[in-house]
Amino acid sequence: MKITSVKARVFEWKGKTVPPANNFCSNAMDQLWDKGDSMGTFRFHGWTVVEIETDTGLVGIGNVALAPRIAKNIIDQYLTPLILGHDPFDYEYLWQRMYRSTMAWGRKGIGMAAISAIDIALWDLMGKATGQPVFKLLGGRTKEKIPCYASKLYRTDLDEMQREAQSYLDQGFDMMKMRFGYGPKDGPQGVRENIKSVEAVREVIGPDVDLMLECYMGWNLEYSKRILPKLEKFEPRWLEEPVIPDDIDGYAELNKLTSIPISGGEHEFTSHGFKQLLDKQAVSVIQYDTNRVGGITAARKINALAEVYSVPVIPHAGQMHNYHLTMSTLASPVSEYFPVHDVEVGNELFYYIFEGDPAPEQGHIDLDDNKPALA
Fold first, then answer.
1. Global pTM?
2. Burial class of residue 57, CB neighbours in 10 A (0-12, 13-18, 19+)
3. 254 and 228 Cβ atoms separated by less than 8 Å
4. What is the 3-state secondary structure (H, E, C) of 324-343?
5. How far apart are CA 246 and CA 261, in angstroms?
6. CA atoms of 371 and 74, how far apart (whole Å)
7. Per the count of CB atoms within 10 A, which of 174, 250, 354, 371 is most buried?
8. Catalytic annotation, residues
9. Residues contacting residue 306 through CB under 8 Å, at least 6 positions apart
């Protein structure tokens, strides 16, 4: 089996979107003086889909959401010539070929995300060629079903947040994640608002439901050190991305400072990047995204590394490529699930582009042993 063509297409959402709201979610832009929608650069309303065709007629599908138009150009100009004519089963060779050929500019960020899309498509092809689900190729079923947490609860009116939290309980979820709306620029009042939002959600879900807290790179080390002691009484399962991803020492300091596990890695790349985090004990939970981190080939290496360090891996976002990795390794105890709703930040756009993602039942997702590839 040989690769005969690679097609990258950009899909852009033209339908209804939820308008931006103030203090919707803290993020890395919050510490700058700026006007308008600070979440604007973090809204993913486009997606690049890659189709790799072979001389057998089989087509593998991969995807990337980061900077979709730039990703398409990278795939078309740089990556496609590197894989044409090759056997998809030589995935390790092809990954190294793409990685090393783009080393000068592509080892992190959008270059690696573009490689991820190609790699996911290669694994999809291998699943189709063997008639096996990808998780079977990765190690098989390690759990009966995948426990998952509902991931939304952006900062809105507190009554609205409580109603949303109750809706997840009603659906059978015993884990959920909420976002903070305030950061360093908001001063002591912002701290109080953040605490009030956690109190409001805990009031509804009680002490026996896991609650995760997300900052989305919107805080800094000083602010995090000030607010973390106030959050410990709520016993969150983790605090996610409190500082920017390049501040590895800041992560490490916070992870040692507090009883709250610090999580991160959504914006980290390859096993080399995660080895740095693990060696410095910078995170207690790893959260790569397969269509950013280097694809399934890179993700499975990170899983093996994390298992040695006894650090759980809980990939960012749901999506089939992440579910298959979670199913196939003991390193991943649970999975994230973005509820289907109107397009907002854009993670939910995956459901509008691809069909077949399993819906959770009583807070669990299952994969079908009889559906090949990434179905």
1. 0.96
2. exposed
3. yes
4. HHHHCCCCCCCEEECCCCCE
5. 19
6. 31
7. 250
8. 316
9. 274, 278, 286, 312, 313, 331
